[in-house]
Design brief:
By secondary structure, this protein is an alpha/beta fold. The protein has twelve helices and eight strands. It is globular and about 55 Å long.
Length: about 290
Amino acid sequence: MTPPSESSLITHLKATHLWMPVERGSQGVRDVRVGQGSAISYPEEGIELLQQHAESSWWIDHRAARAAALLTMEGIVEILDVGAGSGVMGERLAEFGVTTTSVEPHIAGALAIAARGREVFCGSLADVGFPKDSIPAISLFDVIEHLENPTDLLQEAHRVLEPNGRLLLTVPAHSWLFGEEDSFAGHYRRYSKKNLLATIEGAGFAPTYCSHLFACLVPPAFLIRRLPYVLGVRQGDEKMQARLTAGLAPSPFVVKTLRVLLAGEDTLERLVGLPFGLSLIAMFKKQ
């Protein structure tokens, strides 16, 4: 395995803040875990699942394109990706010219990122101990719904971000869509736009953008996920994992159809916005 090269963010922090990170281990990971590490309710099976289907995931492609567009508008070309999973979003963002330094609490995810030749810390954001006011931008892609109380993470993000630094995040949308797949994935909640804004603003951030993603998937999600859940129908973890696998890797015809629908959504969002969707994507500025 080729050792990851030191990211420009780390080089910059060493030069400007005289900050020395933990050295890499033999497998390329900077292991900073303290005690039990971050209490994040995300199954390691999910990391493996994303890694297996990352190369062809229409879901990740669409989310990364929207995220990259927001970052480009802000002139951001490097970001600290916290809760990075297996690093698939970092891979996609690189295609748009955005480089990432990753923080991932699960060792399986951190090892997968290092194997891709990318800079990664294994632990929580607080475990790393970045200097105050030192990071230009942080991403939390589907992270805070896995935390029973995301306040500590958001406050630490606020501490380490530069003045006017940016926080980019995605979360699952609409509590009325909560179903068995959310429980399997370790979600504590799904967010409304109002609740998301209140949560992040409460940690000292001001919103600059907030919109929905994947509006075309809401009707089938309600019928397939939410309705059986309300009726008390449960499928168990094995069937849930099979369903998630099928969703990440559908047939080529379904993928082509979804990409056409999502391209139409992008046009609609630019014109009038999307009133609903399976996910929310939002950008905030440190106050």
